[in-house]
Amino acid sequence: MKSSPLAVTGIDTHAHIFRHDLPMAADRRYSPSYDALVEDYLAHLKGSGLSHGVLIQPSFLGTDNSFMLEAVRRYPEQLRAVVVVDPQISDAELDRLEASGTVGVRLNLVGLALEDFSLPRWQQFFQKLARRHWSVEIQRGMEDLALIVPSILESGVAVVIDHFGLPKGLIDPANNRHGQFLGLLANEQVWIKLSATYRNNLTLEQAAASLQVLVDACGGHDRFLWGSDWPHTQFEEQVNYVSQYSIIEALLPTPAHRTQVLVNNPGKLFGFA
In 10 A of CB 250, how many CB atoms? Predict the structure, then answer.
């Protein structure tokens, strides 16, 4: 007898799994000294009343997505993957990744020189992702996002912005660079993760004020996602899963808005039933 699908009670769209003894990327900025296993992550989901998750390839593992994809293979109904790949990747390999539960590609651009994403090699890559209805996830400081996001959007692919856009403090519409980023949010292909306030030095009050600025720029709550950022690399002693979930509950006190951000939006973007 076939089991019934797992009801979607909430989707955490940003978490990492790894073992500290896995081969690490040579150019990494961080090396973990502990393991973050999928079983631990699923226990956190269950403990917070959540059902599904999207795993994000950590930058220190480079383009070897195998550990994460094996976890998705083991829990195909609950988990999806956002991978890190070379833009020259073949169509056959993209097909293989799609069959393995991949729903997007991440560009972690923190600390890197900005590339010209309007170049044909990038546009062709992004167009391949758009045809698969994947998204491109970007981690970069808010001051630079308006320099790169428009050319990525030209390909037709959806763009997901990590961690409130990494504003490093309160989002200020009077700040020209912040204002330029906010102007991008009229495009319905741009999504934002309400995650990792600690990476932006945001108090709860500042996060609430920043969220209101973002909601105004987006015209509502229908392009926001939530992520725990578990296991909170480099901040493990300061925050935990429970504290991160309590923040989104505080930021979204209206049940309808919480359902929109935790269930409806990620369900639509990442293909959860």
Answer: 11
Closest CA to 18 of 33, 31, 37: 37
Instruction: Give me the residue label for tokens 């209101």.
Output: 212
Tell me which long-range contacts 239-243 makes (C-beta under 8 A, separation of at least 24).
239/198, 241/44, 241/47, 241/48, 242/47, 242/48
Q: From residue 213, how far is each of 116, 178, 251, 268 by CA, in Å? A: 29, 10, 13, 23
pLDDT band for position 250 (cuts 50, 70, 90)? very high
Hey, what's the torsion of the CAs at 35, 36, 40, 41, to 10 degrees? 180
Length of the chain: 273
Q: What are phi and psi of 50, to 5 degrees?
A: -100, 160
User: Which of 173, 118, 115, 116 lies closest to 142, judged by CA?
Assistant: 173
Cα–Cα dist 195/48, whole Å: 16
CA gap 190, 250 in Å, rounded: 24
pLDDT in tens, 61-107: 999 999 999 999 999 999 999 999 999 999 999 999 999 999 999 99
Q: Are 135 and 103 in contact (CB under 8 A)?
A: yes
pLDDT confidence tier of residue 46, bands split at 50, 70 and 90: very high
Hey, what amino acid is at 57?
A: Q
79, 50 Cβ separation under 8 angstroms: no
Tell me which residue of 123, 131, 75, 124 sits closest to 98, measured CA to CA. 131
pTM of the predicted model as reported, rounded to 2 decimal places: 0.96
Which are the contacts of 171, defined by CB distance < 8 A and separation ≥ 6?
A: 142, 164, 165, 178, 182, 209, 210, 213, 214
In the numeric block, which tokens belong to residue 222? 């229908």
